[in-house]
Design a protein that fits this description.
Pseudouridine synthase, Archaeosine Trna-guanine Transglycosylase, Chain: A, domain 4, 3 domains, 10-stranded mixed β-sheet, 5-stranded mixed β-sheet, about 20% helix, globular
């Protein structure tokens, strides 16, 4: 099977667990996800199946949206409720306006230090494996961007908020940082990813739904084609001669009267409307990055 699948990940499963389950359901071995969700988290997990694994890098770069729940006064080693409690702090209940102000402190660009309990590799070893052995090392801060963050409800000690952010943002690290700013510590207790790039939770399918569809011979109906999955990239129809060049990975001139908006990439279609390649726009030329086979 070739295409992109928007799965609604259940709680208590790792992203890898979901991949293994989908392999069993679809009988497709080539599957990759485009952004890890912790076991605690639920919601949108985008999987690339078969030849669509070649476009994973474009999908994982998309902006993410979450609904999160933060608990004040308790910090844990993993920064979420799956970890061991390392500190409990008594505190005067913050006013709602103070919570709003602290959330807004994290709006925009910033440097975030990833949790040591994460899949980021240190000398080839996932950081969480070192942490479990007591050998953790601080991870280098990373630049993130939070384009929107808003309080949705507050009933001390629980703070519910939504956040829209760049790839690589750790919401549990965000909770820990907000807890420090508030002066009493905090950790993440609930997380739902509601959007990843163009993929929204309302359009996702559960593992049970996928299983039923596969049993009924309708499994492929749950998939988006590569062309559909990358619909945010503008499309350009190219001529037969250009198709031949692109098919061999050669660059072609970029005709500027074809609007690309803010996109740095375009989908190239042959005269029949079939997707041929994904190309990067650079200095007046189109450089094919991924040439799509006829099977897609």
């Amino acid at each position: 099977m070739d295409g992109v699948l928007n799965i609604c990940k259940p709680s208590r499963m790792t992203s890898h667990d979901v991949v293994l389950k989908v392999r069993t359901i679809t009988k497709e071995q080539r599957i990759g996800h485009t952004g890890t969700l912790d076991p605690l988290a639920t919601g949108v997990l985008v999987l690339c199946l078969g030849k669509a694994t070649r476009i994973a890098r474009y999908l994982e770069a998309g902006e993410k949206e979450y609904q999160a729940v933060m608990r004040l006064g308790i910090t844990t080693d993993t920064l979420d409720s799956d970890g061991k409690v390392v500190a409990v702090t008594s505190y005067p209940k913050p006013e709602r306006q103070r919570i709003v102000e602290v959330l807004q402190c994290f709006h925009g660009p910033s440097m975030q230090q990833p949790p040591v309990y994460s899949a980021i590799k240190v000398s080839g070893v996932p950081s969480y494996k070192l942490a479990r052995k007591g050998m953790e090392r601080p991870l280098a801060p990373r630049r993130i961007f939070i384009s929107s963050i808003a309080l949705t409800s507050y009933d001390d000690p629980f703070v519910h908020f939504t956040v829209r952010c760049s790839k690589g943002t750790y919401i549990r690290a965000l909770c820990a940082d907000m807890g420090k700013t508030l002066g009493m510590g905090a950790h993440l207790t609930g997380l739902v990813r509601t959007r990843s790039g163009r993929f929204e939770i309302g359009e996702s399918v559960t593992l049970d739904e996928l299983c039923t569809m596969a049993e009924d011979g309708r499994g492929e109906k749950a998939l988006l084609t590569v062309d559909e999955a990358l619909s945010e990239f503008p499309a350009l129809l190219i001529g037969t001669d250009e198709v031949e060049r692109v098919a061999h990975g050669n660059k072609i001139p970029y005709v500027h009267n074809h609007a690309s908006g803010d996109s740095s990439h375009m989908r190239l279609h042959d005269p029949a409307g079939r997707l041929i390649a994904i190309a990067r726009i650079e200095s007046g030329i189109l450089l094919p990055e991924v040439v799509i086979s006829e099977a897609l």
